[in-house]
Amino acid sequence: MVYAASSVADLAAARQFYGDVVGCTLEPLDRPAADESLWGLACADRDGFIVPIGDIHLEVVAYKSPVAGRVRIAAFQTRAS
Questions:
Q1: Torsion sign (Cα): 51, 15, 64, 33
Q2: φ, ψ for residue 36, nearest 5 deg
Q3: Which runs of consecutive H residues, i.e. helices, occur in the chain?
Q4: Domains of the chain (ranges, CATH numbers)
Q5: Which of 27, 30, 80, 16 has its CA nearest to residue 50?
C-alpha cells in the first residue's frame, strides 16, 4: 500500500476534482487531528478526505491553521551542496 498526502488551499475544489472530474470515491479523513504533531503541526486545525485508488491512498487536507506558509522541520530539510 502507498500512502501519500497533499495539502491544498481550496478543499472544495479538490473534492470536486477528485470526486466529479476524476470520478473517485472519497472517504472521510479518519485519523485524529493530534497526529499533526508528528510533522510539527501540533494543534493544527485541518479538514480533509481520503482518495483510495487501488493500493494507493491519497490524503488531501486543507489547513485552517497554521496559515503562515510552509512549516520547516529540520529533519526534512536538505543542505545545498
A1: negative
A2: -60, -25
A3: 11-16
A4: 2-76 (3.10.180.10)
A5: 27
Q: Are 50 and 24 in contact (CB under 8 A)?
A: no
In this prediction the pTM is 0.69
Closest to 7 in 3D by CA, of 49, 40, 57, 35 = 49
Cβ pair 26, 15 in contact under 8 A? yes
Q: What is the pLDDT of residues 36-81, one digit of tens each?
A: 666 666 677 788 999 999 999 999 988 877 665 555 555 555 555 4
Q: Are 62 and 47 in contact (CB under 8 A)?
A: yes
How far is the C-alpha of 35 from the C-alpha of 76, rounded, in Å? 17
At residue 68, φ and ψ (nearest 5 deg) are -85, 65
